[in-house]
Amino acid sequence: MIPNLPLTATILVADDLEANRDMLATLLRKQGYRVVLAEDGEEALELLATGPVDLALLDVMMPRRTGVSACSEIKSKVETRLLPVVLITGSNGASDRIQGIECGADDFLTKPVKKEELLARVKSLLRIKQYTDELEHAETVLFTLALTIEAKDPYTEGHCDRLSKYAVALGKRLGLPEDQLVALRRAGMVHDLGKTAIPERILQKAGPLTAEDWVLMKKHPEIGERICQPLRSFSLVLPIIRHHHEKLDGSGYPDGLKNGAIPLTAKILTTVDVYDALTTDRPYRKALSREEALAIMEAEVKRGWWEGSLVTELHTMLRETPGPPAPLGIPNQGVASGG
User: Fold this and answer.
1) Does one domain contain both 123 and 190?
2) Which residues participate in catalysis according to the annotation?
Protein backbone atom coordinates (compact mmCIF):
# COMPACT_ATOMS: atom_id res chain seq x y z
CA MET A 1 0.00 0.00 0.00
CA ILE A 2 1.30 3.45 -0.93
CA PRO A 3 1.75 5.63 2.19
CA ASN A 4 0.58 9.22 2.50
CA LEU A 5 2.27 11.50 0.02
CA PRO A 6 5.35 13.27 1.31
CA LEU A 7 5.12 17.06 1.17
CA THR A 8 8.71 17.35 0.02
CA ALA A 9 7.87 16.74 -3.64
CA THR A 10 9.53 19.18 -6.05
CA ILE A 11 7.28 20.95 -8.53
CA LEU A 12 8.54 22.88 -11.54
CA VAL A 13 6.46 25.93 -12.51
CA ALA A 14 7.13 27.53 -15.90
CA ASP A 15 5.35 30.74 -16.94
CA ASP A 16 6.66 33.87 -18.65
CA LEU A 17 4.57 36.14 -16.40
CA GLU A 18 6.11 36.71 -12.97
CA ALA A 19 2.71 37.28 -11.33
CA ASN A 20 1.48 33.85 -12.49
CA ARG A 21 4.66 32.14 -11.32
CA ASP A 22 4.46 33.78 -7.91
CA MET A 23 0.79 32.93 -7.48
CA LEU A 24 1.29 29.23 -8.26
CA ALA A 25 4.46 29.05 -6.20
CA THR A 26 2.73 30.59 -3.16
CA LEU A 27 -0.18 28.13 -3.31
CA LEU A 28 2.13 25.14 -3.63
CA ARG A 29 4.64 26.23 -0.98
CA LYS A 30 1.82 26.72 1.52
CA GLN A 31 1.11 23.00 1.07
CA GLY A 32 4.74 22.16 1.85
CA TYR A 33 5.94 21.50 -1.69
CA ARG A 34 9.34 22.63 -2.93
CA VAL A 35 8.95 24.84 -6.01
CA VAL A 36 11.44 25.73 -8.74
CA LEU A 37 10.59 28.47 -11.25
CA ALA A 38 11.28 28.96 -14.95
CA GLU A 39 10.44 31.86 -17.25
CA ASP A 40 9.92 29.74 -20.36
CA GLY A 41 10.03 26.22 -21.73
CA GLU A 42 13.74 26.37 -22.50
CA GLU A 43 14.65 27.28 -18.93
CA ALA A 44 12.27 24.58 -17.68
CA LEU A 45 14.19 21.92 -19.61
CA GLU A 46 17.49 23.29 -18.28
CA LEU A 47 16.20 23.01 -14.70
CA LEU A 48 15.05 19.44 -15.29
CA ALA A 49 18.60 18.54 -16.25
CA THR A 50 20.03 19.91 -12.99
CA GLY A 51 18.03 17.98 -10.41
CA PRO A 52 15.04 15.74 -9.70
CA VAL A 53 11.53 17.11 -10.27
CA ASP A 54 8.33 15.25 -9.39
CA LEU A 55 5.81 17.25 -11.45
CA ALA A 56 5.87 20.07 -14.01
CA LEU A 57 3.30 22.84 -14.48
CA LEU A 58 3.88 24.46 -17.87
CA ASP A 59 2.11 27.46 -19.35
CA VAL A 60 1.16 26.76 -22.96
CA MET A 61 2.18 30.14 -24.41
CA MET A 62 5.76 31.10 -23.55
CA PRO A 63 8.66 32.65 -25.49
CA ARG A 64 11.66 30.69 -26.81
CA ARG A 65 9.92 27.35 -26.22
CA THR A 66 6.21 26.85 -25.56
CA GLY A 67 4.78 24.56 -22.91
CA VAL A 68 3.62 22.17 -25.60
CA SER A 69 7.11 22.00 -27.11
CA ALA A 70 8.73 21.52 -23.70
CA CYS A 71 6.22 18.80 -22.83
CA SER A 72 6.98 17.00 -26.08
CA GLU A 73 10.71 17.13 -25.28
CA ILE A 74 10.13 15.82 -21.75
CA LYS A 75 8.01 12.91 -22.95
CA SER A 76 10.48 11.98 -25.69
CA LYS A 77 13.36 11.28 -23.29
CA VAL A 78 13.68 8.00 -21.41
CA GLU A 79 14.88 9.72 -18.24
CA THR A 80 11.91 12.16 -18.04
CA ARG A 81 9.04 10.59 -19.97
CA LEU A 82 7.32 9.37 -16.79
CA LEU A 83 7.37 12.86 -15.24
CA PRO A 84 3.76 14.12 -14.87
CA VAL A 85 3.20 17.28 -16.91
CA VAL A 86 0.23 19.65 -16.51
CA LEU A 87 -0.33 22.23 -19.24
CA ILE A 88 -1.91 25.53 -18.20
CA THR A 89 -3.84 27.39 -20.90
CA GLY A 90 -5.74 30.64 -21.09
CA SER A 91 -7.86 29.34 -23.96
CA ASN A 92 -11.13 27.46 -23.66
CA GLY A 93 -10.77 26.17 -27.20
CA ALA A 94 -9.98 22.58 -28.11
CA SER A 95 -6.76 23.26 -30.06
CA ASP A 96 -4.48 23.64 -27.02
CA ARG A 97 -5.85 20.46 -25.45
CA ILE A 98 -5.49 18.50 -28.68
CA GLN A 99 -1.90 19.67 -29.00
CA GLY A 100 -1.32 18.78 -25.37
CA ILE A 101 -2.74 15.29 -25.76
CA GLU A 102 -0.58 14.73 -28.84
CA CYS A 103 2.58 15.77 -26.98
CA GLY A 104 1.79 13.51 -24.01
CA ALA A 105 0.49 15.94 -21.35
CA ASP A 106 -0.99 14.21 -18.31
CA ASP A 107 -3.53 16.90 -17.42
CA PHE A 108 -4.74 20.45 -18.13
CA LEU A 109 -5.65 23.52 -16.10
CA THR A 110 -7.48 26.56 -17.47
CA LYS A 111 -6.72 30.13 -16.40
CA PRO A 112 -7.62 31.63 -14.04
CA VAL A 113 -6.39 28.63 -12.06
CA LYS A 114 -8.61 27.67 -9.12
CA LYS A 115 -6.75 26.80 -5.94
CA GLU A 116 -8.82 23.70 -5.12
CA GLU A 117 -8.52 22.31 -8.64
CA LEU A 118 -4.77 22.97 -8.77
CA LEU A 119 -4.07 21.22 -5.48
CA ALA A 120 -6.34 18.28 -6.32
CA ARG A 121 -4.65 17.72 -9.69
CA VAL A 122 -1.18 18.03 -8.17
CA LYS A 123 -1.97 15.58 -5.37
CA SER A 124 -3.50 13.05 -7.79
CA LEU A 125 -0.56 13.16 -10.21
CA LEU A 126 2.01 12.95 -7.43
CA ARG A 127 0.28 9.84 -6.13
CA ILE A 128 0.50 8.27 -9.60
CA LYS A 129 4.17 9.33 -9.76
CA GLN A 130 4.77 7.57 -6.46
CA TYR A 131 3.24 4.35 -7.80
CA THR A 132 5.49 4.66 -10.85
CA ASP A 133 8.54 5.18 -8.65
CA GLU A 134 7.63 2.05 -6.68
CA LEU A 135 7.49 0.04 -9.92
CA GLU A 136 10.85 1.41 -11.00
CA HIS A 137 12.25 0.43 -7.62
CA ALA A 138 10.96 -3.12 -8.12
CA GLU A 139 12.66 -3.21 -11.54
CA THR A 140 15.91 -2.05 -9.94
CA VAL A 141 15.67 -4.82 -7.35
CA LEU A 142 15.24 -7.41 -10.12
CA PHE A 143 18.23 -6.01 -12.03
CA THR A 144 20.34 -6.12 -8.87
CA LEU A 145 19.31 -9.71 -8.23
CA ALA A 146 20.28 -10.60 -11.80
CA LEU A 147 23.69 -9.03 -11.29
CA THR A 148 24.25 -11.07 -8.13
CA ILE A 149 23.76 -14.23 -10.21
CA GLU A 150 26.25 -12.95 -12.76
CA ALA A 151 28.76 -12.07 -10.03
CA LYS A 152 28.94 -15.70 -8.93
CA ASP A 153 30.61 -16.65 -12.19
CA PRO A 154 33.76 -14.73 -13.29
CA TYR A 155 33.19 -15.93 -16.85
CA THR A 156 29.96 -13.96 -17.16
CA GLU A 157 31.15 -10.63 -15.76
CA GLY A 158 29.34 -7.73 -17.44
CA HIS A 159 27.09 -10.12 -19.35
CA CYS A 160 23.74 -8.56 -18.46
CA ASP A 161 24.74 -5.05 -19.45
CA ARG A 162 26.39 -6.13 -22.70
CA LEU A 163 23.57 -8.41 -23.72
CA SER A 164 21.02 -5.71 -23.01
CA LYS A 165 22.87 -3.16 -25.15
CA TYR A 166 23.48 -5.49 -28.08
CA ALA A 167 19.88 -6.76 -28.11
CA VAL A 168 18.60 -3.18 -28.24
CA ALA A 169 21.10 -2.26 -30.97
CA LEU A 170 19.98 -5.21 -33.09
CA GLY A 171 16.33 -4.38 -32.42
CA LYS A 172 16.89 -0.81 -33.58
CA ARG A 173 18.44 -2.03 -36.84
CA LEU A 174 15.30 -4.07 -37.44
CA GLY A 175 13.06 -1.04 -36.83
CA LEU A 176 11.35 -2.36 -33.72
CA PRO A 177 9.07 0.10 -31.88
CA GLU A 178 10.18 1.75 -28.66
CA ASP A 179 8.15 -0.50 -26.34
CA GLN A 180 9.83 -3.61 -27.75
CA LEU A 181 13.27 -2.00 -27.45
CA VAL A 182 12.53 -1.29 -23.79
CA ALA A 183 11.47 -4.93 -23.39
CA LEU A 184 14.76 -6.09 -24.96
CA ARG A 185 16.75 -3.84 -22.63
CA ARG A 186 14.98 -5.25 -19.60
CA ALA A 187 15.10 -8.83 -20.81
CA GLY A 188 18.82 -8.58 -21.43
CA MET A 189 19.22 -7.81 -17.75
CA VAL A 190 16.80 -10.36 -16.25
CA HIS A 191 16.47 -13.20 -18.78
CA ASP A 192 18.43 -15.63 -16.57
CA LEU A 193 16.84 -14.53 -13.30
CA GLY A 194 15.39 -18.02 -12.91
CA LYS A 195 18.89 -19.33 -12.27
CA THR A 196 18.46 -18.16 -8.68
CA ALA A 197 16.66 -21.48 -8.20
CA ILE A 198 19.38 -23.59 -9.87
CA PRO A 199 22.05 -25.11 -7.57
CA GLU A 200 25.46 -23.46 -7.86
CA ARG A 201 27.08 -26.85 -8.43
CA ILE A 202 25.25 -26.92 -11.76
CA LEU A 203 25.77 -23.27 -12.71
CA GLN A 204 29.52 -23.46 -12.08
CA LYS A 205 30.13 -26.96 -13.36
CA ALA A 206 33.29 -27.08 -15.49
CA GLY A 207 32.33 -30.21 -17.44
CA PRO A 208 29.22 -31.31 -19.35
CA LEU A 209 25.90 -31.34 -17.50
CA THR A 210 24.33 -34.71 -16.70
CA ALA A 211 20.79 -35.57 -17.78
CA GLU A 212 19.62 -34.81 -14.23
CA ASP A 213 21.44 -31.46 -14.30
CA TRP A 214 19.70 -30.52 -17.54
CA VAL A 215 16.27 -31.28 -16.10
CA LEU A 216 16.89 -28.62 -13.47
CA MET A 217 18.66 -26.18 -15.81
CA LYS A 218 15.79 -26.21 -18.29
CA LYS A 219 13.43 -24.93 -15.62
CA HIS A 220 15.11 -21.55 -15.29
CA PRO A 221 13.19 -19.74 -18.09
CA GLU A 222 9.85 -20.65 -16.51
CA ILE A 223 11.08 -19.71 -13.05
CA GLY A 224 12.36 -16.37 -14.33
CA GLU A 225 9.02 -15.68 -15.98
CA ARG A 226 7.18 -16.39 -12.69
CA ILE A 227 9.51 -14.08 -10.74
CA CYS A 228 8.82 -11.17 -13.10
CA GLN A 229 5.13 -11.89 -13.70
CA PRO A 230 3.76 -9.59 -10.95
CA LEU A 231 5.19 -6.54 -12.75
CA ARG A 232 2.57 -5.40 -15.26
CA SER A 233 5.18 -3.23 -16.97
CA PHE A 234 7.04 -6.45 -17.88
CA SER A 235 4.27 -7.87 -20.10
CA LEU A 236 6.48 -7.68 -23.21
CA VAL A 237 9.51 -8.95 -21.28
CA LEU A 238 7.93 -12.21 -20.08
CA PRO A 239 7.85 -13.97 -23.49
CA ILE A 240 11.53 -13.12 -24.03
CA ILE A 241 12.49 -14.57 -20.65
CA ARG A 242 10.48 -17.74 -21.26
CA HIS A 243 11.53 -18.38 -24.86
CA HIS A 244 15.17 -17.26 -25.16
CA HIS A 245 16.28 -20.94 -25.21
CA GLU A 246 13.89 -22.08 -27.96
CA LYS A 247 15.19 -23.25 -31.36
CA LEU A 248 13.49 -22.84 -34.72
CA ASP A 249 13.29 -26.62 -35.26
CA GLY A 250 11.43 -27.12 -31.96
CA SER A 251 14.33 -28.78 -30.14
CA GLY A 252 14.74 -25.95 -27.61
CA TYR A 253 13.13 -25.44 -24.21
CA PRO A 254 10.95 -25.03 -22.20
CA ASP A 255 8.06 -25.33 -24.69
CA GLY A 256 9.66 -26.76 -27.82
CA LEU A 257 8.30 -23.89 -29.93
CA LYS A 258 9.02 -23.77 -33.64
CA ASN A 259 9.93 -20.85 -35.90
CA GLY A 260 6.76 -18.75 -36.19
CA ALA A 261 5.66 -19.41 -32.63
CA ILE A 262 8.82 -17.91 -31.15
CA PRO A 263 8.52 -14.13 -30.57
CA LEU A 264 10.92 -12.02 -32.65
CA THR A 265 12.24 -10.31 -29.53
CA ALA A 266 13.13 -13.71 -28.04
CA LYS A 267 14.94 -14.65 -31.28
CA ILE A 268 16.93 -11.40 -31.10
CA LEU A 269 18.04 -12.08 -27.54
CA THR A 270 18.91 -15.66 -28.42
CA THR A 271 21.04 -14.52 -31.35
CA VAL A 272 23.23 -12.15 -29.35
CA ASP A 273 23.30 -14.62 -26.44
CA VAL A 274 24.67 -17.43 -28.60
CA TYR A 275 27.29 -15.11 -30.11
CA ASP A 276 28.39 -14.03 -26.66
CA ALA A 277 28.71 -17.58 -25.39
CA LEU A 278 31.04 -18.34 -28.28
CA THR A 279 33.17 -15.21 -27.89
CA THR A 280 33.54 -15.45 -24.09
CA ASP A 281 36.03 -17.60 -22.19
CA ARG A 282 34.38 -20.68 -20.68
CA PRO A 283 35.82 -23.05 -18.07
CA TYR A 284 36.17 -25.72 -20.79
CA ARG A 285 37.51 -23.56 -23.67
CA LYS A 286 38.93 -20.19 -24.65
CA ALA A 287 36.85 -17.53 -26.36
CA LEU A 288 36.49 -17.84 -30.13
CA SER A 289 37.18 -15.01 -32.55
CA ARG A 290 34.34 -13.10 -34.19
CA GLU A 291 34.85 -14.97 -37.47
CA GLU A 292 34.94 -18.38 -35.77
CA ALA A 293 31.82 -17.62 -33.73
CA LEU A 294 29.81 -16.42 -36.72
CA ALA A 295 30.92 -19.41 -38.79
CA ILE A 296 29.57 -21.74 -36.10
CA MET A 297 26.32 -19.77 -35.90
CA GLU A 298 25.88 -19.94 -39.67
CA ALA A 299 26.38 -23.71 -39.49
CA GLU A 300 23.74 -23.87 -36.77
CA VAL A 301 21.38 -21.82 -38.94
CA LYS A 302 21.65 -24.58 -41.56
CA ARG A 303 20.78 -27.10 -38.84
CA GLY A 304 17.54 -25.19 -38.31
CA TRP A 305 18.37 -23.73 -34.91
CA TRP A 306 18.68 -19.95 -35.36
CA GLU A 307 17.12 -17.25 -37.53
CA GLY A 308 19.47 -16.76 -40.48
CA SER A 309 18.46 -13.16 -41.17
CA LEU A 310 19.25 -12.20 -37.56
CA VAL A 311 22.67 -13.83 -37.68
CA THR A 312 23.38 -11.95 -40.92
CA GLU A 313 22.20 -8.67 -39.40
CA LEU A 314 24.34 -9.28 -36.33
CA HIS A 315 27.34 -9.96 -38.57
CA THR A 316 26.76 -6.67 -40.40
CA MET A 317 26.33 -4.78 -37.13
CA LEU A 318 29.57 -6.18 -35.71
CA ARG A 319 31.45 -5.46 -38.91
CA GLU A 320 30.35 -1.83 -38.76
CA THR A 321 31.49 -1.50 -35.14
CA PRO A 322 34.98 0.07 -34.97
CA GLY A 323 37.63 -1.79 -33.03
CA PRO A 324 37.51 -5.33 -31.66
CA PRO A 325 34.04 -6.77 -30.95
CA ALA A 326 32.91 -6.52 -27.34
CA PRO A 327 31.86 -9.88 -25.90
CA LEU A 328 28.20 -10.17 -25.07
CA GLY A 329 27.75 -12.57 -22.27
CA ILE A 330 26.32 -15.88 -21.13
CA PRO A 331 25.94 -19.47 -22.37
CA ASN A 332 23.01 -20.58 -24.46
CA GLN A 333 22.06 -23.95 -25.92
CA GLY A 334 23.75 -25.69 -28.84
CA VAL A 335 27.43 -25.61 -29.67
CA ALA A 336 27.53 -22.25 -27.96
CA SER A 337 25.81 -23.71 -24.97
CA GLY A 338 26.63 -23.98 -21.38
CA GLY A 339 23.15 -23.30 -19.98
Assistant:
1) no
2) 195
